[in-house]
Amino acid sequence: MALSRGLRCCARVFSWIPVLIITSVVLWSYYAYVFELCVFTISNTLEKVAYLLVFHVCFVMFSWTYWKAIFTPPATPCKKFQLSYSDKDRYEREERPDAQKQILVDIAKSLPIFTRATSGAIRFCDRCQVLKPDRSHHCSVCETCVLKMDHHCPWVNNCVGFSNYKFFLLFLSYSMVYCVFISASVFRFFINFWVGDLPNGPAKFHVLFLMFVALMFLVSLMFLLGYHCWLVVQNRSTLEAFSAPVFTTGPDRNGFNVGIRRNLQQVFGDNKRLWFLPICTRFYTPTLFLERYPPVGFILQPCSWRDTLLFLEVLYSNLVPGEIPSCRFYTPTLFLERYPPVGFTLQPCSWRDTLL
């Protein structure tokens, strides 16, 4: 027991090594660009100020997005998807696999779950003891189920999923902008040092190496960012690109594709002015959420006008004035549990109509 705990602690410590490598390279690039290039090499004051201004904008945006990608915790399934004590006891006492599957099916009837395992059974995590919401997967590194999990990235030491996918994409984007700007602004001095037009000194090594490192990272980032842009347009995660999600009608790689515009809104939010800032842009009050994104798998059918007024009364009575809920709690699955549509009847529809 103590040995396993020690190994886990060592693994957690070593998992920060890639982050420390990136941080060290970025800090060195800051020193090489600001001091060795701008302060000691460039003689034109106007050019020096212009380079430093643009560089610091790129540096701040890169650092901000990297910080958010690292320290934004992954969203996990809420308690509604955990087995109750009685259901867990009934599930563990049952020895027949078919009977266990039926128990999970009965429990899932009250939950908005539409994807299935490859075998057609309800997706269940034995480690977390939860019914997996749609698009969620268990991360063996984080040791938890993650909503809309894309992958576990060692370079940010975090799971990339519903809560931080936007930050991860912006991190890749601003990393590439950072590398492009360094490569473009350093190229002239790189050539001058290479042909010997500038005197040898400590700045020569830093400028030459800065050019090579920026180009090396730029090439790798171009492929990685291009791949994730394609995933966003298709509304797929990395895991779904390799293994198509399975619905009751069978596997479908385009099962979550609702058009390019809505696919982008699911990641970046409705306010396009905030798309390129590493802040949460999907701030939905319950009323706005119901209006724009009705719970997946259901259509909201108003009952009598009395029931509708009762629904609005209950909804507004549960709102805290001035409160803006955190965006990571508002997947369609979690919304149905946190804000049940009182005053409406839920009419199930096909998953294709729901996604549209």
Automatic annotation (TrEMBL):
Membrane is among the record's keywords: yes
Query: Is ATP-binding one of the keywords UniProt gives this record?
Result: no
Q: Which residues form a coiled coil?
A: none
Domain Palmitoyltransferase DHHC span(s) in chain numbering: 122-242
> How would you classify this enzyme at the top EC level?
transferase
Q: Name one GO molecular function term.
A: protein-cysteine S-palmitoyltransferase activity
Keyword annotations from UniProtKB, A to Z: Acyltransferase, Membrane, Transferase, Transmembrane, Transmembrane helix
Pfam assignment, any one: DHHC
Q: How does it sit in the membrane?
A: Multi-pass membrane protein
To which protein family does this belong? Answer: Belongs to the DHHC palmitoyltransferase family.
The entry's free-text remark on domains says:
The DHHC domain is required for palmitoyltransferase activity.
User: What is the name attached to this protein's record?
Assistant: Palmitoyltransferase
- Which species is this UniProt entry from? Oncorhynchus tshawytscha (Chinook salmon)
Species lineage, top-down? Answer: Eukaryota, Metazoa, Chordata, Craniata, Vertebrata
Q: Which gene encodes it?
A: zdhhc15b
